[in-house]
Write a structure and sequence with these properties.
The protein is an alpha+beta fold and 338 residues long. The protein folds into three domains: 8-90, no CATH class; 94-204, Gcn5-related N-acetyltransferase (GNAT) (Aminopeptidase, 3-Layer(aba) Sandwich); 211-332, Aminopeptidase (3-Layer(aba) Sandwich), CATH 3.40.630. Helices cover 33% and strands 27% of the residues. The strands form three sheets. Strands 5, 6, 7, 8, 9, 10, 11, 12, 13, 14, 15 and 16 form a twelve-stranded mixed β-sheet that branches. It has a two-stranded antiparallel ribbon with strand order 1-2. The two termini are 35 Å apart.
Length: 338
């Protein structure tokens, strides 16, 4: 059984080989990625004696995903369908995440070096977009998960994680398809892992530029962080940050450390004068305490931070479909939520 986007397709591999009535084979070329497993299964497994009608249905289902349909013999089509269906069933069911999946998703994220994933974060992703899990069996353990939220009409892939023992079987690609289906424009900042990069490339997301995590010390001596209502877009994201206790200013969001020596994180900054606004922010925090920024490497602001003693402590890669880019005034961001 394969569950995609809340719908169920029952795949009986051995039975299909004996009773298959389809007069076509389905080939997916290297550019495929937009057509969902659901649409391909529907096109390829509807019993019919009319090859022209079946070919038309399959082409309609997959034309955006690089699908080509050609006539084939009974023996060949049985072997093709059996092989394809076995590959699909190996992935396990894909379904919407449940509350009972949270512990497993957090553990998988931590195993993938993403310790910042917690229940509140997952709740936000699920409420704003899609949060899908891949399981072993219908109610078996969670093997991986993916999330996305809409940002400016594009799908922002927030997370894509598969447990170590289950990588390489295609589950990551299936999860990615489940959370981006229906979006022509897609982007992510969580793509440093080689396996993830390959999955993103197959989905049409091209590498653009690194995203740098920079740490340095606050200067102190200022009058505190500026107060005031947020003056830009993404108010739903700002409300989430506010719920976590972050400080919200007119153009910045800072998650302030509550214990000495902990890191103050600039979660978001929108500014046409980032050098001046950053200087004010660093002066507003206690002198000598660590501050962390996540910034696009292409930004001159990243160079200025490095010139003032900030060091690169981590790095990811921004990937996006052609023609999609970020606003230049977004100078500090969250790698998962932008």
């Amino acid at each position: 059984m394969v569950v995609v986007g809340g719908s169920v397709v029952v795949v009986l591999v051995d039975v299909l080989v004996d009773v298959v009535d389809v007069d076509v084979e389905v080939e997916v070329d290297d550019a495929a990625g937009s057509a969902s497993p659901m649409s391909l299964l529907q096109a390829a497994t509807v019993p019919t004696r009319n090859a022209t009608a079946t070919r038309r249905r399959a082409n309609e289902a997959g034309r955006a995903g690089g699908v080509r349909v050609t006539p084939t013999s009974l023996t060949d089509r049985a072997a093709q369908l059996k092989s394809w269906c076995e590959a699909v069933t190996m992935l396990g069911p894909i379904r919407h995440a449940r509350r009972t999946d949270v512990t497993a998703m957090i553990a998988i994220a931590e195993d993938g070096d993403a310790p910042g994933v917690d229940e509140g974060y997952l709740d936000f992703v699920a409420a704003q977009g899609r949060l899908m899990v891949g399981c072993e069996g219908l109610d078996g353990p969670v093997l991986g998960f993916a999330g996305s939220i809409p940002v400016g009409g594009a799908a922002m892939v927030t997370d894509l994680f598969v447990s170590t023992l289950h990588r390489g079987a295609g589950l990551g690609g299936a999860l990615l398809s489940a959370v981006t289906d229906g979006f022509e424009r897609r982007m992510t900042c969580s793509s440093a892992h080689p396996a993830a990069r390959a999955a993103y490339a197959r989905a049409g997301l091209e590498p653009r530029w690194p995203v740098l995590v920079l740490q340095g010390d606050a200067h102190g001596g200022g009058g505190g962080l500026a107060e005031g209502p947020w003056c830009h877009d993404r108010h739903e994201l700002i409300d989430y940050y506010r719920s976590t206790g972050a400080h919200i200013g007119p153009g910045h969001v800072v998650h302030r450390a509550v214990t000495g020596g902990a890191v103050h994180r600039v979660l978001r900054m929108v500014s046409a004068r980032p050098t001046l606004d950053a200087a004010r922010l660093l002066a507003a925090l206690p002198a000598g305490e660590p501050v962390e920024w996540c910034v696009p490497a292409r930004s001159p602001f990243a160079e200025r931070l490095v010139a003032h003693g900030f060091e690169v402590v981590d790095e990811d890669l921004f990937c996006a479909t052609p023609g999609l880019d970020l606003e230049p005034e977004l100078v500090a961001l969250h790698r998962g939520l932008l």
